[in-house]
Amino acid sequence: MTSLDHGKFTKTTTVFHSLLALDVFLLFFSGYAVMFNDELWWLLALMGGNTGVLALHRIAGFALIALTVFWVTFMIIGPGRRSNFREVLPDLRNDTRAFVQDVKFLLGRADERHPHARQFAGYTADEVPLLSYVGKGVVFIFTVELVLLMISGLLIWSKPALMQFFQTKTAAMAFVGFHGLLGVVMLMGVMFHIFEHGFHPAFYPVELKAFIPKSDIPHADHDGEHEGTGIERLRLRPSWNWAVNLGGLAVVGGIVGVLLGSIYDSGYPVPGTLTVGGGPTNVFLTIGINVGILVLFLGLVLSVYGNVLRSRYERQVRERGRAAATDGSGDD
């Protein structure tokens, strides 16, 4: 194991990440089963039809609110959490410099990336911030989207009550459309997140840093005779080349399919006056939407696999500890 695999997060954070991922995936599956009920008829049937899928979506929505309340409370009163919270906040001076230097680096006018932009480049944990400026942006965007999704989801819980409150059907449906559009935008971000962390050449097929807490992995884990972080010893898996191309194609196809489906499917989340017709009769549109859902299933599988690897690693650590204790008692 190289220092690239060293976790940066606590056990609570890694567990929260896994629970949040599971809940968000359930929200996506249930929400899009309703949104694209023609194209995703099999997913709708798998979740118990209209009644079952709506119940699952609402349960997952309440779970998301509970997870958010827990995390905000934990960030405020948890031990040492305020310092980590400050690490997530933008550092306007250094983050701006990192962005400018990244642009120069891409244009060939800089020799290396700024330290605040490094995340997967093989540096030790002390040489890079907890999150790069890109990571901070992802956290900020994801947080805003989740908050808006929760608020709009609660508002459209009962559409008749919402229409009565706003006195017009148009205003009520605007909230429904806004909720759906947020879901589409968030879907694109989650797909890119799956691709970035599932197909990165240094971590393929799963990035263990998101699952194994830093307290369980000593940072001096690699042999003392070898200098550096260990990135020099990494070798690409034989399957990475075709997997990354297939995964990239699926992500692009899924995003295009969902975006076009949002326009072609009448009235949700795009208002009916903007739709141009279509539906499940368009085989390419149906394939694109289903490919998008399969990418989400891939993300769910990778999340489960990451937790399996974490459990396996913890078992190996316990076995090594028992073996070391047995050897020590034998020497006595």
Automatic annotation (TrEMBL):
Membrane topology (UniProt): Multi-pass membrane protein
Entry's Gene Ontology cellular component terms: plasma membrane
Record keyword Disulfide bond present: no
Entry keywords, A to Z: Cell membrane, Membrane, Transmembrane, Transmembrane helix
Transmembrane domains' residue ranges: 12-35, 55-77, 138-158, 170-195, 242-264, 284-308
Coiled coil: none
Domain Cytochrome b561 bacterial/Ni-hydrogenase, chain residue ranges per copy: 9-213
Cell location: Cell membrane
Pfam entry (one): Ni_hydr_CYTB
Principal localisation: membrane
Protein name: Cytochrome b/b6 domain-containing protein
Lineage: Archaea, Methanobacteriati, Methanobacteriota, Stenosarchaea group, Halobacteria
